[in-house]
Amino acid sequence: MSGIFLKKINKSFGNTLVLNNVDLEIYEGEFLTLVGPSGCGKSTLLRILAGLESSDSGEVFIGGADMTKVKPADRNLAMVFQSYALYPHLTVSENMLTPLKLRHLSTLERFPLIGPFISREKRNELTERVRKTAKILKLESFLKRKPGQLSGGQRQRAALGRAMVRNPVGFLMDEPLSNLDAALRVHMRSELSELHKALGSTFVYVTHDQAEALTMSNRLAVMMDGNILQLGKPREIYENPSDIRVAEFIGSPKINIFSCNVIKSNQVEICGFKIQGNFQHFMDKKISIGIRPEHLSLTNDRNCIKGIIKHRENLGSDFFMHVESPNIEKRIILRVSPEEALNLQVDAKVNFNFSQKYALFFNSAGKRVEVFDPNNITNKKIA
Amino acid sequence: MNSVHKSAYWFLAPAIILMIIIFGIPIIMALGLSLTDYSLGNPGANFVGLDNYEKIFTRSSYEKMFGATFRYVLVVVPLTVGLGLGAALLINSITRFGDLYKTIYFLPVMATLMAMAIVWQIMLHPSIGEINRFLQSGCEIGWLKNLLTLSFLGFEKMDTWFGRSCEDGMPNWLGDKDYAIWVVCFIGVWQGFGFNMVLYLAGLTSVSRELYMAAEMDGAKSSWERFRLVTWPALGPTTVFVVTISCIKAFQVFDIVEAFWTRGAGPSKTAYVMMYAIFEKGIKQNLIGIGASITIIFLIFVMMITLVQRYLVEKRVHYS
Lengths: 383, 320
What we know:
The complex is a heterodimer of chains A (383) and B (320). Chain A is α+β, with helices and mostly antiparallel strands and 383 residues long. Chain A folds into 2 domains: 4-244, P-loop containing nucleotide triphosphate hydrolases (Rossmann fold, 3-Layer(aba) Sandwich), CATH 3.40.50; 253-369, CATH 2.40.50.140. Chain A has 10 helices and 21 strands. Chain A has helices spanning 42-50, 92-104, 114-118, 120-136, 152-164, 182-199, 210-216, 234-239, 244-249, 338-341, and strands spanning 4-13, 16-26, 31-35, 57-62, 65-66, 77-80, 170-174, 202-207, 219-224, 227-232, 256-264, 267-270, 273-276, 286-291, 296-298, 305-314, 319-324, 332-336, 349-354, 360-362, 368-369. In chain A, the strands form 4 sheets. A 6-stranded mixed β-sheet of chain A has the order 6-7-8-3-9-10, with helices on both faces. In chain A, helix 2 runs parallel beside helix 5 (152-164). The longest helix of chain A has 18 residues, at 182-199. Chain B has helices at residues 2-33, 51-58, 60-93, 98-110, 113-123, 130-140, 142-148, 161-168, 180-205, 209-218, 223-234, 236-251, 255-260, 274-284, 288-313. Chain B is an all-alpha fold and 320 residues long. Chain B is 72% helix and 0% strand. Chain B is built from 15 helices and no strands. The chains are: A alpha+beta (383), B mainly alpha (320). Chains A and B meet through strand 6 and helix 2 of A and helix 10 and helix 11 of B.
């Protein structure tokens, strides 16, 4: 019952429309990522869900109850911020104790001097909870330190700890890893996933990093210009993007986009090569084909797409070749194995090819279109 | 290792030399003079030991000096700090007219106090002053008089301050020894809190918005709880600075007293503040020795405040 449901959320700042009628259902216990470029409204959506910002219209349901007008403190959600937002004057254990104190102790019991005196038992219980959480997060040895004396990763953990101690319905995370260095970020990715599995509660995660979105989430929602363009499992989004903007945003390096002309109702032409398919709705219109770098393969066959290597990118396990090809405006990126890359230097001439089934077709509005008979997709190379 | 030490002194030298010239030597000279009966123009001076200090701690006019100074400091410091913080928080919370309020509150800080003192003197005049005329008009409006004399609660006319003033005439603010120092305090607050407000406004800009959001998520529902959890700790360093500066400024009050009562520090010396005493003894009466000893005592007070500040407050203040 503790699923989260956002219904027809609208929000503008001044004349800028930030969220445009957004609907989103988050299932209980899932790890859902909102991913998109800066300014797409993902953080605003998260804040509306948290109650920190109010929407112009629309409703927020948490656990089946309408929470649209409820204060953030009463929504029982916990949030982890990009800057961690730890109280700098309190130690880690005091930081983690704060949400418990504010919830479980009355105003009188929080009163200085007499407060600790009349609520000793309760306080011991709360301290015990902090200790348990700290143990899970391996924070025990830092409990007496202040945030200023911790490294980025430790602060991150302390912020997580503060969120975890009170067993919230859901965790909201606003780019929590973007202040960490690269190695730690990769490490924390797996740790967060494991934490999610161990706790079993709902995680809503906001990021602009598509790698974080793909690696951690059960489902991800790609947002752009105040709309959710596509919502689905990471693999689905990667393999079957429904919009050219999604295809371009998800995947690194970026997908290659070729624009080509429909010449016959059953044929398009790309760099002089023809692809058969059902194009009868796109006659005399532009159509774009997207092919991911790993789906382009080098070949010795001279009759394929030709190009000259302009730049080599060495990633260790892979090489990315930036290739310039006549008739194609943008540089094409293709992935090759290190063995293949050995004899490919800058300015080398290459021929490459792709298999038709990997080609993603987008119409002139950027929407995905199916051109192949779904029962008859072949591995056929284009040339 | 040795060379490191040497270079350290070289780096410190400019600051230390300046300190000695500007602070060290004058303080030592004042200390020396305070043990003599020197007057300007005299060829020499006699060493009198601690006689000057003995006078200060035994004579009644100096008792009045301590009374007036401590009254002023104890009233003005908490009020300027409190009002400065309050005004800063209010201005920070509104979206419109913030600049207007900032200007209004800051104007007294920029104004020349001597000129303002003349304006206040006219306003506080017992018979023709605006303030008494305004108060007097309250006596003539029936319901307002009832309200202010608390007669609706069953008080007799002569039980309340306002009722008595209506009967016997409004107070002579600057000429009555019951009011004089408090009027000086009021003007000190009016003139001083705008400066603290600006310092607090600067301090408030550095408080992270995410911290307030975190506090809200953590269950701090009232703005008071958020103030206690986020704003007040974040303003710690500002508060240390504001309180220290306000204390030192309050001990230094002089010009308003000099402007109001050119012939001697208020009715029966009720506004005989320390700075005025130094000026009167050391400059007007040319008793340099005793002036120097008041100065030394003054310095000790300021020193003590600064030290207490460091030990009591700074220990609990977090500098991020």
